[in-house]
Structures are given as structure tokens and as C-alpha cells.
Task: structure prediction
Amino acid sequence: MSGSITGLKGTGHGSSAKVLAVVVTWNRKHLLEQCLRAILGQSRAVNGIILIDNNSTDGTPEFLMAAGLLSDARIIYKRFSKNEGPAAGFTAGFAEAMSQGFHWLWVMDDDVVPEADALHHLIQAFEANFADPRSVGFLSSLVVDPQGCAMNVPEIDFQPMPTGYPGWNQLLGQGMVKVRQATFVSILFPSTTLEDFGLPKKSFYMWGEDSDYTLSISQKRPCYQVGLSRAVHYRASASSPGVTKERDPARIPLLYYFYRNQLYLRRRYYQRRQFLSQLVESLKAVWFALTTRPFTVSRARAVLLGVIAGFFFNPILPESTDIVTTQMGERLDSEVE
Result:
């Protein structure tokens, strides 16, 4: 995708730079409130929050209205008519941001609570080290769980410099590490990244759209984690997804997307040996699903079909940014008054 972000000029330096946040939510209204208030309370203020509701069924719009958040003009609330999955939510949020115009886009899930200076440190890291927004693809925060343990750890970029040495530590003195892949958990994109790389691919559904997007960017543009920028991720489980850990029957069918997407990512962005290693792990998961009690057809089906699909999956880049008006309703003040 090419083009320009609507209506804004300049490099995005200084306090005049327009910053929008994108948050995708589904049935986490209490955590969502903490997330939104943390964003609105940043020492480096945001200009707006695009909130994408994946058709929550827990009374999210009524709760937010009672809390005074939907009456805040800085929050643009959009709601899917059905749950389209996190990937579609982020795709819609990015598209809405492009229509609004911005210099910086700060992205996170609804169970992320950034520290009060998290955004300040992300933007300061850029301003202290770069002049051109195209000098970086993204900047991500250091993410921990509520106990302070590491979560959403990005993959370090070991790509060699012309000297032959990897350049991941070139800005270590500035508290920055060059990374290859990161998640949509307190991650900051300059507008030029969306201009040049387009939108995340909604066909991932979940578990992979952020890896795909960041891996595609870091192939062509340096990207960094900023150590001083911190966020807490209140995810229900600190462990990575997988059939050996998942106990919620409602989430078992979703394992299809995890195994499909993981194989695709290894096939698309990694060396053959890394793909084969992932394939071995996936086959172990199939064996576990088929042989471990209590056996369930849904578990075995999700894992087996996901592994098979991983060989053929070809995610499609959205053709248009007009998905917001075609798939979602507008702000829902009239529904919750």
C-alpha cells in the first residue's frame, strides 16, 4: 500500500506531533477502563484513542458510558456487528487512524496498562536518535506481567552489518535494542510505516497478525525496543498459547489459528531449518491432542487442521481502508444513553 496519511505534514518531532492510540477490546471492560485511563493519563498526551469493540457481550459500551469515557471527545468508539477476531480489529483501527491523520500510532490490546511515561520515552527515543521517520519501522515498550516478569519479549535482530557483526546493540547506550519482531502490546508506529507497509492482515484472525506485520517491516527498516518505556500486560495466562496449556473449552477451537499461523510465519520469514523445527513442534502437538486424556474431538480437530492449513495459508493484504464504514457501526452514544 502506498499513499499519504491524510492532512498532516512534517516529521512528527516535538509536542505538535499528532499521536493516536488504537485499542482493540472484547469482553474485558474493567481492564479496558484501566487501559484507557492509563493512555489518557500519559505525561506525553495523546490526541485521540480509536477504540475498536469486537462486539463485546459484557455491557462494555454501557460501562464505558457510565464511567464517562465515551463522552470524552478524545475517544472514537467503533463497534463490530459481530466478533471478527483481534486481527480484524487492529486492521480496522489502523484504517481509521489513516483516515484521521496522525504522526504516531500507539497500539495495544485492552489488557495492557502502560506506565505514565511510556509514550514519552518511545517518542523521546526517536527524537534523540533519528531525524527521518523512515529511519525506524517501529518502537516497542518493555512489557512485563503484574509480577514484573518478562512478557511479549521481542525477537532480537541479529542481521549482520557490513562488518559482519550483528548490529542489535548499536543503540544499547541509549537504552534501545534492535529487534526483528514484536507484538501489538504498547508499540509505536510512525505514519510513514503505514504509508509504506499498509495494514495488518485481518485473515490471521488472531495469534500472528502482529508478528507478520512487524517481521515484514523489520526486513526493510530498523526497529527497536525502548527499555525506559514500560507497560504491564494483564493477560490471563503468562504462558505462550499451545495445546498442552489450554484448559478453556471455549478457546480450544481457536488453537487452529495458532498452529496455522505459526507454521506460516516460519515458512514465510525464517530459514528452512527453523520451519522444520516448528513443524516438529506442531506434529508433537497433534500427537498430544490425539493421545492425551481427556481426549476431545474439538481439540484434535483444531490442532490437526491448523497444522495442515499452515502449509497452504496465504494471508491477504486488505485492498481498501474503507473497512471501518462497511464492517462497523459508528459511535454508539444513542445505544447506551
Q: What stands out?
A: Confidence is low (pLDDT under 50) at residues 320-337. The radius of gyration is 20 Å.
